[in-house]
Amino acid sequence: MPFSPQKRSGTLNGILFVAIFAAAATMIADLAVVKNLGISPLVVGIVLGIFYANTLHNKFPSAWEGGITFSGKKILRFAIVFYGFRITFQQIAEVGMQGFMVSLLVLSSTMILGIWLGIKVFKMDKDTSILTASGASVCGAAAVLATEPVLKAEEHKTAIAVSMVVLFGTISMFLYPVLYATIIEPSSGFLHMSPSTFGMYVGGTIHEVAQVVAVPASVPGAGEAMANTAVIVKMTRVIMIAPMLIVLGLVLSTMAKKSGSEGSKVKLVIPWFAVYFIGMAGVNSLVHNYTLTAPEDMAMMVKGMIDNINIVDTFLLTMAMTALGMGTRFAKFKGLGLAPLYTAGSMFIWLVVGGFVITQWVVATF
């Protein structure tokens, strides 16, 4: 037990150690040059963690490992639950059936395609394939973090999936404005998208929330319609992480039952933290309704509280990501080759091309 009398001191020191790294990651991510690239503290955290794991790991007490593990497992689940305070059901309702269908179709198709490509085509292990697919299909690094406890995957596999999200998400930030300026906006017929529809395409296909925010800001004359639609559709994808994880848990349990010996008991994997995540989103929705009718001073105070919760939650997610990085040794990457790059690259092409087709079809149909 990490907090037994014998281990309590080492565990607390390990948690504090991770928190110091996370604070450094937060300050680095707040630098203008880093912020303009849409790189979140989570990504900076895992980079710092990997640096520690492969350079300074042997310089610090092994007793701290319990606190590092606690940060990467328990604090992670807690942070994912409170991630629900970033979402309201009202936001999802604003984009209506079109935004919901784009999110659903892009998420499910990318997830299935990514897992199939990773396992069957590029011969990656199951965990790395699922983690890479979840990052591309849902919400980047946060989705990888949320999927890791369901799989009970090793830290280096999580790091691989996050690195793929960072690579292709960054490419998206530069590619999408060029696509809009040269092909989508000036053309007629099928290739043309209104600013609102392009926002739906951006929110439905780009990896990270920060990257989704950055793209409309890079499009001259984008307007509020593009930016708002992009963010709302993206947050619709984010909330879908909960049902996705529940379905994933059921599928994994069914697969384990089929592969096990007859009569063996297989524990049903239900990620309860994902259920609690939806609950927090529901609470946030009620709070949002309250602020619409409450006196202005009360509404401002409540909004300030929610903002503070999100700031703390981002820091806890950064701690979790840093801790995962601290468990990642480069030696564990041997044998994977370019399979993760091929898998993530194929999903990226699908998101750009297939996501475009899905968005146009949904807008024309619903």
Proportion of residues in β-strands: under 5%
Helix content: over 70%
Compute the number of structural domains.
1
Order of helices and strands: HHHHHHHHHHHHHHH
Largest sheet entry: none
Count of DSSP strands: 0
By secondary-structure content and strand pairing, the structural class works out as mainly alpha
Number of discrete helical segments: 15
- Calculate the mean pLDDT score and round it: 88
- Ends apart, CA distance between termini: 54 Å
Runs in which pLDDT lies below 50 for 5 or more consecutive residues are none
Radius of gyration: 21 Å
Shape: globular
Q: Explain this structure to me?
A:
This protein is an all-alpha fold and 366 residues long. The protein has one domain (8-365). Helix content is 77%, strand content 0%. The protein has helices at residues 8-29, 32-35, 41-55, 65-82, 89-121, 126-139, 141-151, 155-184, 195-205, 209-217, 223-239, 241-259, 272-293, 296-326, 339-365. The longest helix is centred in the N-terminal third of the chain and has 33 residues, at 89-121. The relative contact order is 0.18. The mean pLDDT is 88.
Structure at a glance:
By secondary structure, the chain is mainly α. The protein has 15 helices and no strands. The protein has one domain.
